Records
---
Amino acid sequence: MDSQVLVALALSLVGGASTSIGALFVILNPAPNLKVLGLLQGFAAGLMLSISFLDLAHNAINSIGFLKGNLWFFAGVIFFAVVANFIPEPTLVPVSDVKSKRKTGDEGGKDIMKKHRRQVLYSGIVTAIGISLHNFPEGMAVFLGSMKGLRVGVNLALAISLHNIPEGVAVALPVYFATQSKWQAFKLATLSGFAEPLGVIIVAYLFPSSLNPEILEGLLGAVGGVMAFLTLHEMLPLAFDYAGQKQAVKAVFFGMAFMSASLYFLEISLPKEMSL
């Protein structure tokens, strides 16, 4: 297997494994701190926005021109908008909210509770499928970023990893409530993350080993569009809901500053042959 594919596969495994971290939030504490998750989402949103606009889209425009760079960028936006329309990002509901429903007089009785548990389990399974389909284009993004250079691949994997932690919570929370099984909750959340390296493997063998530089830059611009849409459409609203608007915005700018610093220090620390 090509070394570029191996690097991309390793990075995507890190991103996919972050859903397992989200599952650990649940099984170690069934009522996870949503404010912390919101701040993580805001921080990851800052990373993603920096990558999208200051790196991928910027380089595409400089390399292939303003018009072509923008066409590729918005092609990526439209692609992920279609994906999000058919597979919306799940809403995270704390276990405490779900449990409170059984305290009302209208929902008394074991039969109703069993039915409710089945409904919650079904929602967890649907959420896992949806997240798996969401993770597939993220794996594609990591692969294409790794083709451009280690710096781009590493930073994309870092941002996606932070984004995947709340996704793991969204899968594990309803499954744990419905089954009372920590293993089942952890297993399903982890499996949903495996779609990311699967995306790398499939795309690695669909694309030719040596792409035309102009097409590669265009594809990276499209990845920038995918990341920008994912951030503004899904990550920021969740960050606002969980952490509050003011705190989330601070986390976004902290993420952007962290990304700028990491780009600089990674660039000066890498050998010239590995640098962009």
Note: Residues 77 and 225 are 5 Å apart (CA to CA).
---
Amino acid sequence: MESEKKASMVSDMGAWAMNVISSVGIIMANKQLMSSSGYAFSFATTLTGFHFAVTALVGLVSNATGLSASKYVPFWELLWFSIVANMSITGMNFSLMLNSVGFYQISKLSMIPVVCVMEWILHNKHYSKQVKVAVIVVVIGVGVCTVTDVKVNAKGFICACVAVFSTSLQQITIGSFQKKYSIGSFELLSKTAPIQALSLLVFGPFVDYYLNGKLLTNYKMSSGAIFFILLSCTLAVFCNVSQYLCIGRFSAVSFQVLGHMKTVCVLTLGWLLFDSELTFKNILGMILAVVGMIIYSWAVEVDKQSTKTLPHAKNSLTEEEIRLLKEGVENTPVKDVELGVSKG
């Protein structure tokens, strides 16, 4: 039992480490690919389509070689999920374009309380006081790290709301699908990736043209840009797989809370690799965020332990209880249901 628990813990840590490393890696690769000082490939939605196309190809090869098994999930549910996921991607891109960086960061922070409320509404899930305190500390810490100027406009606000709602719903749905259909994370991703890839590759160039006024066909591709596109796609496979793995193992709220560790890593690496400014405010926010994550981990563990120690209802009757019930049935006069009189 103890060895199984340790193996599960190692597996959880592995999934989380893969998600953090691949997510931070893809941000660094995309920064080089999309920045004006890099290769100026400013087609974020289309690039995401490439990501899902490569992920779908990996899933197809895995199923064909027998490395993974394909389980049945109704097509309409996969289609609905893909629409929600694509709304999340497009909404985030539009939110970043139309809003200030400060408001964009606030909208991302708001996903934690939104996920909590949605899980409460959809799954009747409740959170302890300790977990709520930890979430608040994490939100404040990451907010201090990242939020600068905050400017709001009507279009940007609507896009941010769509992005937050669809991303939260997507993360909750991943977990519920895995439980509902007893499907592994990679198998679920293999089924949704082709739909997302097709739709993003068809509509992505038009979305990108609206965002930046540039046509993909006019972009001059270089060997360096191709290398970073392939690197980004490779990291995206690990990032997508690990995201599904993490949400299957943890809750959507845990994924959001621990996900802010990536923000801390990105800020630190940006300072180390790209000469980004790291102020006292950033450092203070990072410390707060890390403290909040430690409190959150402790609070979740306390909840698990308290759940285990709760008294459980009996699942079976003892022989003595069965004998007494039999005697009760045999000695009780049978009544006529309609007349309510004893027949014994």
Note: DSSP finds twelve helices and no strands in the chain.
---
Amino acid sequence: MAKRSVPLLKQLLSSSAAVSSSCSSRFTSHRSVTYMPRPGDGSPRAVTLIPGDGIGPLVTGAVEQVMEAMHAPVYFERYDVHGDMPKVPQEVIDSIKKNKVCLKGGLATPMGGGVSSLNVQLRKQLDLYASLVNCFNLPGLPTRHENVDIVVIRENTEGEYAGLEHEVVPGVVESLKVITKFCSERIAKYAFEYAYLNNRRKVTAVHKANIMKLADGLFLESCREVATKYPGIKYNEIIVDNCCMQLVSKPEQFDVMVTPNLYGNLVANTAAGIAGGTGVMPGGNVGADHAVFEQGASAGNVGNEKVTEQKKANPVALLLSSAMMLRHLQFPSFADRLETAVKHVIFEGKHRTKDLGGNSTTQEVVDAVIATLD
């Protein structure tokens, strides 16, 4: 008798779960955003805009159009900055310090010649110590791997990017890699805090401490100390070369990754390539007081001349980055609307740029996103 009742019990439980799920789905689909703004939070916010080089003006222009179509409570203060400038103009720095938030296209970095990257200058001057890139599968966009949802959090102010190089004697150049406990601890704290606040379950520290025992060893030591304060989050470590191999073979094993500066750039671009390409990966740089949002993965971030001339740059990465910006500004419903519209256009597959297997122009993608906004 007991054995015959088991299938019935399972059926009843299954039916109950289905009803519960249906009710839950019906309820949540009509539930409003549980966000209580402070009085005055709905006032339009000023955002510093740097169109940048190459495809930058195209994709930042796309964001401007979508923001206007949504009637998003932001307005832009535009500044023309280019990668061949000796430094970021002071008026631009002052604007970002005043507005606290900036949206930027890519700035070209000259190869060699002793000219420093304005991207790096900006991060240092504003102490944007954390770079975040979210690499994830977009529904409808075919990739070799599924279930990829990786957040790469990279220390942004020191390491090999410190730019401390000099020629010791003719033909011999010394480049210094600087790692400090202060910077290592704060990026580790940011990574664990991000994981905790975003319901992430694991943080992986990427390193090369088997060779750079002091520098990367200090980074690892800092990560380990911070990890003890977050017992609910799993912590592990991986050597950077093994990390790259694991990324291309089994990327779904990674959740949040915390890295020194150079490794983070390599890992983020590798993860972006796996999840759908640099054209669809959002990102931002954040410090205690300021934030700059831009295309997440930097490879080819200014595009090639042909793409610019044909006006076929992919605006998806910067549109998703601007959704991150809206959430940062505490306009979550606008961020949700924008993300939903972009993902719908990708899923539908009718309007895609060449890097995603289509032949659409930037404007055609923008028009499709605007038409999809609910």
Note: The longest helix spans residues 2-30.
---
Amino acid sequence: MDEEAIDITGKKQQQQPPIKKNKSMKLILLLLNCSLVCFGQISGPLLLRLYYMHGGKRIWLTSWLQTAAFPLLLIPPLLSRARDRAHDQSQSTNQAIASNFLLSPKLLIASVFMGLIAGLDSYLFGLGLRYLPVSTSSILTSTQLAFTAVFSLLLVKQKFTPFSVNSVVLMTLGAVILAFHTNSDRPNGVSNGEYFLGFFMTLGAAALLGFMLPLVELSYSKACKAITYDLVLQVQFLVSMVATIFCTIGMIINKDFQMTREAREYELGEGKYYMVIALAAIGMQCLLVGNLGVVFCSTALFSGVLLALLLPLQQIFAVIFFHERFNAEKGMSLALSLWGFVSYFYGEYNLIKKQKQAPPMTQIP
């Protein structure tokens, strides 16, 4: 098909390739953010658990690490601003700042609220990893898909199917199985009470994450302005900054910034102590940024499904690197979680297939 068409005045008009270009760009951004989620979901929790396994004890520090790398988000906007200034040297600095700040008052307030949720979620997740092996923590975290489905229904009116209901039930059963079989995978030195505390804190973190993802989608839909990726980066920056401030206050109260002694006594050595916490910060920041980006490029439910999909990989790495026991209860819980994921994915596939096969609506002239 030719790229040009003739209008009623006889003039040539180009068709609209920008639509295809926008779709291609969104697909590239989706793949990029999916890659960030994959890297963060697999590396972040493993590194945080490595911190605890060899002498780390500061829960607020591990909470702070999950969002502390947010200054890295300044790199793309700064590069974009430098490019814009090169194109328009006449624009003043104040005008440039005003044009680059894209958040509306509603989105600004929503971002601060989501930042507080992210900070609390980081604390609950860090506390859970203190007392749980990574394999158990990852299975519990996978229940966020069930919470995401419920909150997507309540907040963004996501349609439920029998497959998504089945997914919620199966993942809930998987968490219940783990709750009643605690003795076989308790780390050394962790009491039953501490194990259950870690169990329910991790489950609470999954619930908060399941609430936050649809809330992000709702905030985008209520923004009353075009949602661009530059705007999404600003939301990500503000959410991470507020979460870091929240955890910084906790660290100051608990004197967790006094890490020199802990670093000297760390079993792997002082240098590796700082390397572990730095890499953990980068990994967890990639996870948060990737999640918010995936919601922008698709839906909150897809972000939840992606996290559930990564569960088997995280399990495998935990068994390989930390030699964690993978007992029958974990296997059953993992099977139920994967069954729930397949059920949800199959339901979404059928829904998309039906939408494609439906006859187009006729327009009344």
Note: The chain has a mean pLDDT of 80.
